[in-house]
User: What shape does this take?
Amino acid sequence: MNVQLAKTDLDWRHIGTIDDIKPQGARKVRWGDMTIAVFRTGADAIFALEDRCPHKNGPLSEGIVHDGCVTCPLHNWVIRLEDGTAQGADEGSTRSYPVRIDGRDIYISLG
Amino acid sequence: MSRQKLVIVGNGMAPGRMLDHLFDIDAGAYDVTIFNAEPRVNYDRIMLSPVLSGEKSFEDIVIHDDAWYAGHAITLHRGHKVARIDRDAKTVTSAGGITAAYDKLVIATGSDPFIIPVPGHQLPGVLAYRDLDDVERMKAAAAKGGRAVVIGGGLLGLEAAAGLKAQGMEVTVLHLMPTLLERQLDPAAGYLLQKELEGRGIDIRCKANTKQILGTDAVEGVELDDGTLIEASVVVMAVGIRPNVALAKEAGLSVERGIVTDAAMRTSDPDILSVGECVQVDGRVYGLVAPLYQMARVAAQTLTGTEAGFSHTETPTKLKVTGINLYSVGTFDDGPGYEDVVLRDAARGSYKRVILKDNHVIGAVLYGDVADGGWYNEMLKSGEDVSGFRDTLIFGQNHQGGGAIDPLAAVANLPDDAEICGCNGICKGQIVTAINDKGLTSLAEVRAHTKASASCGTCTNLVENLMALTLGDAVQSAPEGLCGCTHHTHGDVRRLIRAMELKSIPAVMQALEWTTPEGCAKCRPALNYYLVADWPGEYEDHQQSRFINERVHANIQKDGTYSVVPRMLGGLTTPDQLRAIADIADRYDIPTVKVTGGQRIDLLGVRKEDLIPVWKDLGDAGMISGAAYAKGLRTVKTCVGKDWCRFGTQDSMGLGIKLEKYLWGAWSPAKLKLAVTGCPRNCAEATCKDIGVICVDSGFQIVYGGAAGLHIQGTTELGTVKTEEEVIEVIGALTQYYRESGFYLERIYKWADRVGYDHIRSVVLDDLDERRALAERFAFSQTFAQIDPWAERVAGAEAHEFAPLAVIDAPEGASTKTVMEPAE
Assistant: This one.
């Protein structure tokens, strides 16, 4: 599927629809060598983070999604989806990307 | 000088508590003899409702076990009802003919349920709700199904109704008054409660007057005054209690509504005291536990020569039905000069009403959000003038001064004499002192030393907050606690899932009042396992609540690649399989190929997008998933056995293959590794496995509960059987019993240590009926579990797991083209 965007919207990339991601689930978006994890919460909010845990680079997209956070599958760090910061006693943060929803379509800004 | 003799008639909660106090004050003061009409030890009668609903067992509610009576050298006559008191001779005599002399006598005969004498009230199937026998009769009736009619919409009646509903009966509640719990709730809260109960499928009929109970040999129905007929297979009368005064009256003691005592709990005979529901003190009789415990304390002091007096206090009311929160205390009728402050939140189904007189709290009714009940009760007791914060009073303690909602701050703000545990009358100061003086660090210890939260348990959160406040990080959380999202333990959750027939994760979280909306990475996989294990064929596995390894059926490695381990039954392979594995390792550039400890081959470093093609090629060569990632059956390791080995006694490879074919695919609380070894030389290392079989000349020795990881432990023998068929049935039963009662992530050795090896043997080996039933349940569950997850995914299941959502251009090549990657 190819999507043409208006020139003013160059920064916003269409990556799929909400229905492509399970509730409380995540998918990966490959961007060159980088991977971005796109999460859908139980309440259908969508967030995008770099797919690397600030602890030991664990793939956050493989974690369990709960209450606006994801638990990393490698060592159970809990990362807040909204801004990528580690919760609890752990310190660190992973990069987050703005997301725009238009109907069911998801756009992210890689800026 | 010989010790004084104390005789107690009755073995309920009040005399039990009195003895606790007595032994605290002076353990050697008396030789104690107890006559108990019930044939059992002292148990927590206020917890009968959770026993009825199936949320607790009798063992859970025992207050004093046999060891306690033995340790205090108490003579306990079980099942002996006292027939008369001879005050001149100072003796009591039981119906069974036992006579005991006393220096001091305590009458604690409690109360009898009131049975309305309508026609038919003597029919079999008309029950009261008073003791464990009643609960067992109700459970027996529930097992047959049908409809229960509960007469009485008070606390006991509603708890009975909820319990019978939880046991699977249809339930109708008949209540004489216009609203439920009219003595504890105002009409508005009564209405909310009625709606909630109706929402749970309980039929509630207020203003319903029972005319007669119908039936010839047993209960068949109930007829109301207005002619309505309701079919019923059991009728529970819960309309009230009457102090049991017959014995005291016959002995010539002063008796009115109850046995009349002074404030020191002495009856009209100074050598005879009375405590409990049979007592009338200062014109009042009591049925709630807090005043009864106060009587117990006073009586213990009187018996040891300390001045003490009982004084009336308002006792808050709570309904012990899981998921329903209500709290009321004090006065809530209309009266001169009374003012109401009311807050309703329809969306949350909550209702708060505080009744004031001259700027003092005189009563409170809370439904839904009851967190501030204790705070209002404090103000009621202290008589504090609330005019300074009247405007914000109704919003509760956390909203005073605009501070953030912090449960620790709320506890910190309580005065030392604020009551934390209403059942036991334990104040904040007593708990803090006990924590500091005795070095208590766990909830169990605080309960043991102070009794706080040891009765109905509704103050557990408060006690925990108080511990957190006092100890900081030194608090030990209860070892069996599930996670921070719930106060329920694994055991509670497993029991409740079955008792309340909860069949989805949201249903569990709703019914058991999870404190987080979606749980966490600890509780969600646990709940998913419990539901998978308890409702085979009904529950749909929730993939998003599984750890990644079980979701993608491979083991995640530190670099985000996966390892793939095909099943090799019993550790046997073939040249064709080996060639296929070699070709696949070449084809997909798999960097590491390793033989595992469980006699399998591990392909390490497989990229996620290669998983499906690797599985397809393995499947084409006849291999299925080895479940090397599963909390479930992993491997059955074997030695070569009698086919080759000169010492082998049986066909250990063949038996290992049969066991693995029988067990593969089963999910269990934690991983399950087996071994079958052909002789006691034990080359397959069966004696450190979760379950092992040691072949001997005469048959098969089954062992289990071994560990060789962080913890090292040899197996324990389960027993020896003669045939391979028996081995398979017993191991099926053992596995199923572990699946049904183990806690998530609890290895079989920890489960067995907790549950008891003798008990497990009696269930899965000795009791042939139970053994067969367990094996049948296992076989049934396997019909849904033995589906190769790799083949399913090769055929297209869960495709979203294995392909990126999108692949977009590298950062440098700025372009507007976006491509969705096709599913592979």
Confidence is low (pLDDT under 50) at residues 813-824 of chain B. The first strand of chain B starts at residue 4 and ends at 9. Residues 260 and 280 of chain B are 5 Å apart (CA to CA).
